[in-house]
Amino acid sequence: MKFVAITACPTGIAHTYMAAEALTIAAKEMGHEMKVETQGSVGAENVIEAADLNGVTAVIIAADTKVDKSRFEGLPIVEVPIKDAIKDPKGLISKAAEAKAGAKLQEKVEEIKAEEKEARTGAYKHLMTGVSFMIPFVVAGGILLAIGFAIGGIYVFNEKGTFGQIIFQTGQTAFGLMIPVLGGYIAYSIADRPGLVPGFVGGALASTIGAGFLGALLAGFIAGYTVVLIKKVIKLPKSLEGLMPVLIIPVLATLVIGLVMLYLGSPITFVNKAMSDGLMSLNNGSRVILGLVIGLMMAFDMGGPVNKAAYVFGTATLATAANGASPIMAAVMAAGMVPPLGLALATTIAKNKFTLAEREAGKAAWALGISFITEGAIPFAAADPIRVIPSIMAGSAVTGMLSMFFNCTLKVPHGGIFVLAIPGVVGNLGMYIVSIVVGTAVSAGLLTALKKKVEV
User: Fold this and answer.
1) For burial by CB atoms within 10 Å, which of 143, 212, 331, 448 has the most?
2) Domain with 41 in it: what CATH number?
């Protein structure tokens, strides 16, 4: 028999190729012909062409992300999570072989199963699609930012035209695209290509109004389901159907998501002011409580409005602190370094709790963490928010409290590890490092305890 298959995992790094290899070897051992297209982080490889579909028994799609099935119209299709292709490739091929023999019955069964699966895991699959496209922007942008800091110093962004500043700006640009890409590809997963424009615009507006990655998540889902609704509600004559994907859907859906996101601007501004006022009142009370709150805020949305409120509050204190040495700014930066560092450590010490792709991303998280790029934790948080966000919030809260308790101070608004060696910039340096290390260990310990073992 002859089969074709597509494999695709959320990050497109490891499981995509493991599944492809497993299917290829199993088919050879069973005496079947098999061509597998991999849709990995470098794009589609070994692409299935029209000629490859001649005489095909069935199509196997082993994926945890959105896969375009339009080219397989009329062929029996078996869809499974990618882990099924890795764990039991021969069983999957046998299932595909049976699909040909009872195509009509199989199609009905698969249709029912697909509906049930969509009801159970649809949102998760859409989220994973967005995350898979976002990760390369996070890694490339974050590491380039770190390199820029390393070459040009903590004020590299002011050194216009220098080599370090160019690298820094390039990283900043790549990093800035992370939020629109997340929103755009969540919408794409829900509504296919018509969802891209409103999804990207919604994600970009989330950045503009300061809604961060949580705003992009919301924008992606709203944009995607808006497109789905428009398709159902608006029916045009055959002669005008061509206007739907290129004019009517993009314009209407983008208008809707634009109005929704821009109306969120005022509430977000109000919340930011309320948080800033709240932090100011705490500044007159317990230092340790203030450090705890700052830590929680820095880790909650990793670059979103809550994080930014704490950061802006910290930078504002630099102007009024004695000798420019602010304990609040020190707590802000230390707490902001912990989320990616905690995840990096967790992927190192608890490898069985993370996929191979996540462990690879964890290596990049080391660089992002030491560079005070809290957003390095976003891919992990987006994939498993219930376990990841509380864990990193706990670690950051501990770091914020310890930094304030030990009266650590900081004279600059950024820089991460690169400012620690500059004399006079950090007050009580030894205990500052201890604060960061302890918080990192707390986050890693909680992640290790809470996350489940990975099913390969």
Assistant:
1) 331
2) 3.40.50.2300
